[in-house]
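Form 7-S
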Amino acid sequence: MHRTGELYGQFQTLDQQREAASLGMWVFLITEIMFFGGLFLAYTINRAIYAVAFAEASRELNVHMGGANTAVLILSSFTMAMGVWCSQTGRKKLLVVFLIATLALGGVFLGVKYFEYAEKFHHHLVPGYDFHFPDVKPEIAAQDPYINAHAQLFFSLYFGMTGLHALHMIVGAGLLLWLIAQAAKGRFTPAYNTPVEIVGLYWHFVDIIWIFLFPLLYLIDRHT
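Output:
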């Protein structure tokens, strides 16, 4: 395999190379959907079975932090989309600006998530030996005598799902750092901007996953 400029030897044109890269990313994202889909299915089934415990546990989540992070990720999708547009139209300086903005917003998301996790540790809501679910009203406890165990199941799913999502955010941040370094060198042009588009697809996917996580974990049955 050889490389001529930005064109690798197995491809005849940059357009063919871009289409192959896009197809590869979409195939990867489909596998990610199946991966997250298993977690969503496990959560949905358990929430249906242990509705009372899951509703009570959901109220222990900080909806303000979750809502703020949702707004942050929606804004980061906008800045990422603008970065893709800049790469397609040759606005090299603006491309760097929007990529840095996207990275900064991703950092804000992870920072908020850190404080949210710290809050759970402080209140002993981390599954394990030290787990302690706050006392609930007797009439609620009567509906689910094992509410403490089932609440622990909720938080196991919460940390598993949001932790996996945060891991994907960290990977995305690493990709953005690489894009910023390459964009600063002026590598991306209207003729060649495939890496920006591919990373953009990945970033939007991660944002969409959170759009599903937020209502499922933080909002459903919260006010019943």
